[in-house]
Amino acid sequence: MPVRKQLSVRLPNSPGSLVAVCRVLAAERVNIAALVLESNGQLRVVVDNHLRAVAALGREHYQVTEQDVLLLSVPHDEGGLASVAALLASSGVNVDYAYSGPADALERGVVVVGVQEPARAAAAAGV
Prior knowledge:
It is a single chain. The protein is α+β, with helices and mostly antiparallel strands and 127 residues long. Helices cover 31% and strands 35% of the residues. It has helices at residues 17-27, 50-59, 80-90, 118-125; strands spanning 3-10, 32-37, 42-47, 64-75, 97-101, 108-114. Strands 2-3-1-4-6-5 form a 6-stranded antiparallel β-sheet, with helices on both faces. It starts with a strand and ends with a helix.
């Protein structure tokens, strides 16, 4: 399903903050699909099991918020994202933010798109 939960955590701007979160998730066998860490300490992450991740982070006293986002698998080549972005734009969907994760063995990348109505955006993107 292209609509997934994104977890947001505010981290202090200090060495080891990101690794601490990654270790909590790894200890729970939660895989990270995509993440972005902004300069203000806002970590946004999409994982394979958001329920397990929220529980684990909560036990470690992290404040976690959840938001629905659009998770797209796009061709990892020139214009791969452009075609999906064009579908969103032509349907009047405004992209608030976007970030990506690694390409898989099939040469497809993962792109997380924050929009106001993820289900409508998924339909507009044809996913």
